[in-house]
Design a protein that fits this description.
single chain, mainly beta, about 0% helix
């Protein structure tokens, strides 16, 4: 769920995207968009007012009546499955799509276990704190911290992480990274990771 610049509501599920304008719903199906949607994982709004939908079939962007679609087959994403999106103030995107994908509006860059400190390509969550430090959660390898070109890696072995399975990352008003971890789908823990 997210709100656009007009404070109207957007939703996503496995079959269509929905927009509530305050008076009624507009439904966008796979036929309207031209691509299979798949389960929606995350919705985000950028500073232009574009709505980004991360799904299990790729990345969709709604821009004033026009839909754009990106996936691995178009050499944009690393994989079709988009689990999380973080949008910076300049509207560049950090995308958790098994790898960590960065899109500056023109060029797509993939951080993988072949060209970065990742042990595996299992990135599941991403956010950024007020110091422009990137926090990256994984599905089994714990948490990574990227500060410019400097990387740090936190696991249950070298930190107080309760689990190496990160479901979601949120930075609170105190600039503390909150981790939602999941040893199993029914057992989730919130954990505060200090910024320094």
């Amino acid at each position: 769920i997210t709100l656009d610049n007009n404070s109207t509501l957007w939703l996503g599920n496995s079959a269509y995207f929905s927009h509530w304008n305050g008076q009624g719903w507009t439904i966008y199906s796979e036929t309207d968009i031209g691509h299979p949607i798949g389960q929606t994982e995350i919705l985000r709004k950028d500073n232009f007012g574009h709505i980004w939908f991360g799904t299990q079939n790729g990345l969709f962007c709604y821009n004033n009546g026009t839909w754009e679609f990106y996936n691995a087959a178009s050499n944009c994403l690393y994989s079709h499955w988009v689990k999380d999106i973080y949008i910076q103030a300049d509207n560049s995107l950090w995308i958790a799509d098994s790898a960590l994908t960065y899109f500056d509006g023109n060029i797509w860059t993939h951080y993988t276990c072949e060209n970065s400190p990742f042990l595996h390509n299992n990135v599941s969550a991403v956010t950024m704190d007020a110091n422009q430090v990137l926090w990256i959660g994984t599905d089994g390898d714990g948490l990574y911290r990227k500060d410019g070109n400097s990387w740090a890696h936190f696991t249950t072995d070298n930190s107080c992480l309760p689990s190496n399975y990160i479901v979601r990352l949120i930075v609170d008003r105190n600039n503390t990274c909150l981790l939602y971890t999941s040893p199993s789908p029914r057992d989730r823990t919130r954990y505060r990771m200090p910024s320094s």
